[in-house]
Design brief:
The protein is built from 34 helices and 18 strands. The chain is an alpha/beta fold and 845 residues long.
Length: 845
């Protein structure tokens, strides 16, 4: 009651979880409250609770003549942006304050008849999807074992037939056919009637047992010898996306030994061969345990190097430095925290100090053009990865527009339009009355200036619109790369969320729909990431379980939006960390196996969608600030795990990352690690070196089952999103991190040069000689870039922002408009506009 002495209006906030209806008699606040908010209205029993609380309010306030429905009790879901119940509650409070105090506050909200209702990302009837996947994959394993036993029996009967008929074991098995045994052919060579009678019994038993064998599995057995021969032939021929490739099956060592690129098991028994084919198989065949393609790509190493510091020009120079002389340009981009949170460079103290530090500052299309200048973004050997999540759709739009304008530049040069276009651009900037953007400093070696001719303008401003549209359509279907955009792992581990989870997922879905509609098949719309989960402290099993569960959540969400799994499946990619734990030796093969089984058997996806493509980065958490030279040894071992497990691309960390931003010298050493493994280490001439190892097979089974057990635990908590509400993933990561740190500090887990095998000086923490940071000049220039952009495009910005908001409010696809808005708007302008229609992120507490 003391609250009433100090407040004009009292609001009592409660939840549906108060127990039995009789418990309401004990809640005194119902007697005094002007308004009651029943929050967490998405919980089970909320509608019943609303009815009971309204009845209790009516009784306590003696409002018998009023309808129960008119009682001031409102269901709300405060965690959900633009929730109808919360909006109605807000307006009711404004009216109540006006009534009781005589003020004249006005609300623009219109009362909606719509009751507060959870906007489900995953439909309620699909909430068991992870356990369904676990059940599906376990059933596949049981069936494989059952079929193995049947095949083993058949092999025993067949060998008995061969013994009776005195048939010498032949590799081409001429007495077998698609329907079974060629009985007549065998009986022709039998002379004794007793043998014929015995063989007839064996034929009948063979036919009886074979009825339980899947015809597909009989095909596998029949074709085994032909498969073996195809890998013994000098050249192996296969197709990728309709293109025929011919690969040599052997390489020659310095000792002139012919080293097979793919080694096959020497099993003879059909059961062993069948189980191996169903659970392992050769690279390029379901379930892709050993790899996605029959052979590794030639002419392109899996190396992908990470860079990002200062302004776009500095990072552009680093990209050219690390890729100089390499035929394939595989760039991985780190952004500063200003960009990661969707802000523009600014003098504001909490922003200014972070501009260009620990990542590159990119705030507009011109920054993206400078960042990737000199790299042909439509070349099949160029691939760009962007490590950004909250503002990922904006950064993707910057990148796509940069690639389109590069192609416009090529068109201009090819058609001799340079002078004409330059005159147009000068005219445009004369009207804008601001300085045209320029690349700061000298171009590095390898940068031919591609991407800089149209700085400050876009192709549609200087070329006929029909030509521009044609160039745009062709360009976006050619570009290769990945944008991280994994908002689920951000909530669970890394924290760079900016929009509400529902809106962030909607943006991801919009991007994927745009990719499908525009035939963008070479670019990944999301990199479902376990790396940050591992860096936050998760062990390898939790990393893999959480990452795969997030991946299947995107699958369920995209399916609920009506997308075809065969169209979006190939646009999904993954990103894992590799530490030195034993489970990391099999992380890729287990991931491929689980994904393929679920996508094929559970979702009915085609072969391309069944393939889990993943990037590996060696563990940053395993780099230590003591004895930093030892870090290269750890990185080498982790890279070896990744390469032996057939990762699709690999980044090796620099040894000095534990204490500073990597120097050019340390980056070169890191690059050399994987080049030496790939080019010099003899065993990597073979492409399935860990297949057939007893411990690898045992680890694969153990980790696979551990993942399914975690899937079941997540299902018990309402699936991935339900578990996130109770912070299950974050809590588990924290517990595992604490466990590791405890063992490290008490010495039970030995780390060489850190808690054991210390130097005579005690292996003190190494202090960096230099800490690489953005210069004042770079920071000031980035602020100037934004100011000039905003000044030059003020009128266009308002128009594009209004269209963006309108599409968001009308639940239309936003990304097409985002592609246009990103031509004239800064990243901060778009972020602020989308906050108003999509809501800012708030963590569940």
């Amino acid at each position: 009651t003391e609250i009433l002495d100090h407040s004009d209006v009292s609001l009592y906030v409660m939840t549906p979880e108060y127990g039995a209806a009789t418990q309401l008699e004990k809640i005194d606040m119902i007697d005094f409250a002007d308004v009651i908010a029943l929050n967490k209205f998405d919980k089970r029993g909320a509608l019943d609770a609303l009815r009971d609380v309204k009845k209790q309010y009516q009784r306590n306030h003696n409002l018998w003549e009023n309808s129960v429905d008119s009682m001031p009790v409102y269901g709300s879901i405060a965690s959900q942006f633009n929730d109808p119940g919360t909006n109605e509650l807000y307006q009711v409070l404004i009216k109540k304050i006006n009534q009781k105090t005589g003020t004249h506050f006005k609300s623009t909200f219109e009362i909606s008849d719509k009751i507060s209702e959870k906007q489900f990302i995953i439909p309620p009837n699909r909430v068991r999807y992870l356990s369904e996947i676990a059940e599906n994959n376990r059933a596949y394993g049981k069936n494989a074992l059952n079929q193995k036993e049947i095949a083993q029996k058949l092999f025993g009967i067949y060998k008995t037939i061969c013994s009776v008929a005195n048939i010498v074991s032949e590799t081409n098995q001429p007495h077998l056919s698609k329907i079974g045994i060629n009985e007549d052919e065998i009986l022709k060579i039998i002379k004794k009637e007793a043998d014929k009678s015995f063989l007839s019994l064996l034929f009948k038993e063979f036919a009886r047992v074979k009825m339980d064998l899947n015809p597909y599995n009989w095909e596998l057995i029949l074709n085994w010898e032909a498969k073996k021969q195809s890998y013994k032939n000098e050249v192996f021929t296969f197709k990728v996306r309709g293109k025929e490739l011919n690969i040599k099956t052997y390489s020659e060592s310095l000792s002139h030994t012919q080293i097979p690129k793919i080694s096959l098991p020497k099993y003879e028994a059909w059961g062993d061969l069948l189980l191996w084919s169903l659970e392992e198989n050769v690279p390029g065949e379901f379930p892709y345990t050993a790899g996605l393609f029959p052979f590794k790509r030639t002419g392109e190493d899996p190396a992908r190097m990470f860079a990002g510091e200062g302004g776009p020009e500095r990072t552009n120079r680093r990209f050219h430095y690390v890729s100089l002389g390499l035929p394939a340009k595989r760039l991985s981009t780190a952004f500063d925290s200003v960009t990661l949170y969707g802000n523009d460079p600014h003098i504001r103290p909490d922003i200014y100090g972070k501009i260009g530090n620990a990542g590159v500052s990119v705030c507009c299309l011109d920054d993206a053009k400078k960042l990737y200048s000199g790299f042909d973004l439509t070349n099949a050997l160029t691939s760009v990865s962007m490590t950004i999540n909250g503002p990922a759709p904006m950064m993707l739009a910057f990148f796509m527009n940069a690639a389109i304008d590069q192609e416009c530049e090529k068109y201009i040069v090819k058609n001799g339009l340079e002078k004409e276009i330059e005159a147009k651009i000068k005219g445009i900037y004369k009207k804008k009355d601001v300085a045209r953007p320029q690349y700061q400093g000298e171009l590095p070696e390898g940068n031919n200036g591609l991407g800089l001719r149209l700085l400050g303008v876009t192709g549609d401003e200087v070329l006929p619109i029909e030509i521009y549209k044609k160039i745009k359509t062709e360009t976006i279907s050619k570009v290769r790369g990945t944008v991280q955009a994994d908002i689920l792992k951000e909530d669970q581990a890394q924290n760079t969320c900016i929009f509400s989870t529902e809106f962030a997922l909607r943006l991801m879905g919009d991007v994927q729909e745009y990719f499908i509609e525009n035939n963008i098949i070479n670019f990944y719309s999301v990199s479902i990431s376990g790396y940050h989960i591992a860096e936050a402290g998760a062990n390898p099993i939790s990393q893999l379980a959480f990452t795969l569960s997030n991946g299947f959540t995107y699958v369920e969400y995209y399916l609920s939006r009506g997308m075809d799994i065969n169209e979006f499946g190939p646009n999904l990619s993954f990103f894992f960390s590799n530490g030195v734990d034993p489970e990391y030796a099999v992380i890729g093969r287990v991931a491929r196996k689980i994904w393929a089984k679920a996508m094929k058997e559970k979702y009915g996806a085609n072969a391309r969608a069944q393939m889990l493509k993943y990037h590996i980065q060696t563990s940053g958490r395993s780099l230590h600030a003591q004895e930093i030279d030892f870090n290269d040894i750890r990185t080498t071992l982790q890279a070896l795990y990744a390469i032996y497990d057939n990762c699709n691309s690999l980044h090796t960390n620099a040894y000095d990352e534990a204490i500073t931003t990597p120097t050019e010298e340390s980056v070169r050493r890191a690059m050399a690690i994987q080049l030496i493994i790939n080019k010099e280490l003899g065993l990597t001439k073979n492409e399935n070196p860990i297949q057939g190892s007893f411990i690898i097979e045992e680890l694969t089974d153990l980790v696979e089952e551990a993942i399914y057990a975690e899937f079941d635990r997540i299902t018990e908590r309402g699936g991935v999103l339900g578990a996130m509400e109770t912070m299950y993933q974050r809590s588990k990561i924290q517990e595992e991190s604490l466990y590791y740190e405890t063992l490290k500090h008490n010495g039970e887990f030995p780390i060489i040069g850190v808690n054991t095998f210390l130097s005579s000086k005690g292996s003190p923490t190494v202090l960096p000689q230099e800490v690489i940071r953005a210069t004042e000049k770079e920071k000031q220039y980035q602020i100037t870039v934004v100011e000039n952009l905003n000044k030059a495009n003020a009128s266009e910005v308002e128009e594009h922002i209004a269209l963006l908001r309108q599409k968001a409010v009308n639940n239309e696809n936003i990304f097409e408009q985002l592609m246009e808005a990103c031509k004239v708007c800064s990243i901060g302008q778009i972020t602020e506009a989308l906050f108003e229609v999509g809501g800012q992120y708030r963590r569940n507490m």
